Amino acid sequence: MKNDKASPMHYLMILPGVGFIILFLGSSIFLTVCQSFGLFSITGKSSFTLDNWKVIATQEARDSVFFSLKMGLLSSVGTILFTFPVALFLRKGGGGKRFLGSLIKIPLFIPALVAAFLIVNLISYHGIVNEALMKLGLLKEPLRMLNDRFGWGVIVIQIWKNLPFVLLIVMASLAGVRDDTVDAARNLGAGTWQVLINIYIPLTMPGILVSMILMFIKAFGDFPITSIAGPIYPSSISFRMHATATLYQEWDQAAVLGVIIIATALFVIWAYSRLAEFVQGEIR
Amino acid sequence: MRRFYLLLTAFFVIVQLVWIGVPIMMAVLWSLVDPQYPWSFPHLFPQRLAPAPWIYVFKYTNIIKALKTSYSIAPFAVALSFLISLPTAYVLGRKNIPGKKLFNLVVLLPIIMPGMVVALFLSRVFTAFRLSQTFIGLVLAHTLMGLPYMLRVLTTSFQTIPQDVIDAAENLGAGTFVKIKDIFLPMVRPGLLAGMIFAFTTSIEEFNLTFIIGTPTFETIPTILFSFMGYNFIRTNAAVVALVMMTPNIVMLFIVERFLKSDYLSASLGKM
User: Fold this and answer.
1) How far apart (Å, rounded) are the C-alpha atoms in residues A205 and A209?
2) What is the CATH number of the domain that holds A148?
3) Is the per-residue pLDDT at A153 higher than 50?
4) Who wins on pLDDT, B48 or B196?
5) Which A residues, 192 through 211, put their C-beta within 8 Å of a C-beta on chain B?
6) What domain range includes position A186?
7) Quick one: which of B78, B108, B187, B209 is 20 to 30 A from A148 by CA?
């Protein structure tokens, strides 16, 4: 490539796109952090204080944080568990696989709220899933899968909605595993299980990690799905933050929760980049 | 062995049809329940079907207004994100400037950052600048969420333009304007289509920011669906709105499958 020397002109051209994002995201995050420490407060007095942080360490807040962490973890792990076998299966094309592929991708284009509604319809106390399981004799009484204390309803919705998204990423990663590698291992006498553990999983780790990170953050910080299908208590951390701000008008305390959410997301991303480097190192 | 794979494929197809089809079918059924024969517990199917819920929703709720709002914000958001992305994608795709990795990360931030936090505090910023509860505010917010997709796709498109073509054009004396008109714009067109579709669907589905910044002045399809699912949970109404919200997306799905390779999505998101 000629003309590779960076010129001020280049930075000027980056400004619209990158600048827009930094301006709006940055101001929002900046305000969140500031308000958590009492600066720029809307409720009159603005001064640096750690009071908000102390106040927020209530049992309710802790429960919300743990609940959201749980949602993030179970949603991402659950989706990968479902997705990986399907990705492996779809790897060898042919037959009705294209049709299957298109079918699987449908939830990708279904908005989160619609997905929430669709699944809520199915898993309600007298919904079709419960009725079917009872008719089959597998259940004596319906399972409470919606608005349950554990949060299963949310997890099911997250898995249903995000499976195609994760599938696309994992399949892209899987496509990078060359058949010769697999054949070579088979030639050396590796069984199916060994091929899975020693070849497929390590080589698709980047894709798996990326999708798990994205899913974790989305499920952790989710608002609409959890307010619709989640338990009354504990509420998700985003919901608590929203209620603290708009219902109780305690914006500064809400800002603390906001900082916790942002910090968790950033930490997870950092952990991912560390983990990715480690995995890359192992593969060499 | 072939037999086994065929059976397995058939099994997966059936599982998928149930997994995807049953939820959608239930929504369709619920949207057609005759209000005089409410569908409840012991019945496996609604006793009578009637278009009544659809008529009710379109007549007595704000769905038409919400549709208008959603579909008027989206084109502006897409256009704005396209215009903003062009120069940035050009530099990120073709030039090696210091800090490029950092910039690429920044581009992805709106997708990564948890939505409700950004929404809540951006609304505060907007209120300070009198942008809250305004159409422009909503367009700006939707643009913010669409930019990552538009930028990633356009950057990839710019990357694939062969340098020889540009060199040849310059050799023949093409100025910047001609280069843009005859080389860059035509060659990024497939990527542009993909980016436009992603940005458009992102805008239509956008909830968190719209909910905080727009409500109650503006209602979009997602916010109206959310309101139908909370306090006013009338299942039939929610079913109608859900289907209305879903149909254009499925149409887009077919367009995308037809005209674009699905590698686009995984390529733009997987290369992180």
Assistant:
1) 6
2) 1.10.3720.10
3) yes
4) B196
5) 207, 210
6) 56-283
7) B209
